[in-house]
Amino acid sequence: MTRVRVAIGDRVGRITLARPEKRNALDLEAARALREALVRCEQDPEVRVVLLDAEGRDFCAGADLAALEAMLGAGAPAHRRDAEALGAVFATMRALTRPVVAAVRGRALAGGAGLATACDIVVAAEDATFGYPEVRVGFVPAMVMTMLRRAVGEKRAFELVATGRLVDAREALALGLVSRVLPAAEFEAGVAEIVAGLAASPPGALRLTKRLFYALDGVPFVEGIGLGADTNVDARGTEEFRAGLRRFLERDRRSR
Q1: Residue 26's pLDDT is what?
Q2: Are residues 104 and 140 in the same domain?
Q3: Of 11, 14, 109, 180, which has the fewest CB atoms closer than 10 Å, so is most exposed?
Q4: Which of 217-238 are b and which e, b meaning 16 or more Cβ less than 10 Å from the residue's Cβ?
Q5: Which of 156, 178, 200 marks a domain boundary?
Q6: Are residues 182 and 212 located together in one domain of the fold?
Q7: Whole-angstrom Cα distance, residue 228 to residue 232?
Q8: Which sequence positions are flagged as catalytic?
Q9: Which of 194, 198, 193, 208 lies closest to 240 in space, CA to CA?
Q10: Same domain? 34 vs 146
Q11: Number of domains forming the structure of the chain
Q12: How far apart are CA 90 and CA 132, in angstroms?
């Protein structure tokens, strides 16, 4: 059964979670397929931006609980393999040189909320719901916390994971979980516009931007300025910048 579909075209790598009958829940096979899809997009020279969306009413309900139940008698090594497969998806998203955009409709819960949080940009429909309810079943949103603390800060992150409460799209936007909220009727067109805009940007500049952005995690102020200077120099050496600068100056001269 196909759990993840990949379509590449118009400089976009579209990865679709394809288990609507299970609310796109993640098991070991789905996590591995998702990571393979991300790697495929990274290796394709046509792809400038990756879009992650889902079939059906919900983005992703989190871990496949039936699969977890089937593993209850397994030893710690098997459980570690299962956990690390999803962790590898999060790490691969962060390491990708292309920006990753999540298009979230319906519920994004537990590992599904973590999947959205791992993306660089999260666009939510007004009907979207986010939450980390693992604690309610005696579980822990363990790997997600690394990203959640960075996204919303300590106090908000702890409250979300300790209570397991769900938040709607507007509150998710206010918390910093979401980049933008769109009306349901405009969602598909709005997502397409955002993704097309990214895909039209110079790819080298996007790669340098993402590389520096995450390299600044936990870096002291002065060191961060130094990393910025390094990236500034790298950008000046690209043909993209030279060509863009010439176009801008030429337009400026003609407008005088």
Answers
A1: 94
A2: yes
A3: 180
A4: eeeeeeeeeeeeeebeeebeee
A5: 200
A6: no
A7: 6
A8: 134
A9: 208
A10: yes
A11: 2
A12: 16
What is the span of the domain harbouring residue 244? 203-255
Phi, psi angles (nearest 5°) of residue 71: -95, 0
Residues 125 and 243 in one domain: no
Say what the pLDDT of residue 109 is. 97
Yes or no: say if 44 and 2 are a contact pair by the CB < 8 Å rule.
no
Q: Are residues 163 and 222 in the same domain?
A: no
- Which pLDDT score, from 0 to 100, does residue 227 have? 96
Identify residue 159 by its one-letter amino acid code: E
What are the helix (H) ranges across the chain? 28-43, 65-70, 76-95, 111-118, 144-152, 154-163, 169-175, 187-200, 203-215, 221-236, 239-255
Question: Could you give the strand order of the β-sheet that contains 129-131, starting from the edge strand earlier in sequence?
Answer: 107-109, 129-131, 166-168
**pLDDT tens over the chain, length 256 residues:** 689 999 999 999 999 999 999 999 999 999 999 999 999 999 999 999 999 999 999 999 998 888 888 988 898 999 999 999 999 999 999 999 999 999 999 999 999 999 999 999 999 999 999 999 999 999 999 999 999 999 999 999 999 999 999 999 999 999 999 999 999 999 999 999 999 999 999 999 999 999 999 999 989 999 999 999 999 999 999 999 999 999 999 887 888 7
Measured distance between the N- and C-terminal CA atoms of the chain, rounded to whole angstroms? 62
- Kindly report whether the global pTM for this prediction surpasses the value 0.70: yes
pLDDT for 72 equals 87
Residues 229 and 189 reside in one and the same domain: no
Minimal CA–CA distance to 109: which of 67, 167, 156? 167
Residue 158: which CATH number? 3.90.226.10
How many residues does this entry show for the chain?
A: 256
Are 11 and 83 found together in one domain? yes
Q: Are 222 and 132 in contact (CB under 8 A)?
A: no
In one-letter notation, the amino acid at residue 17 is: L
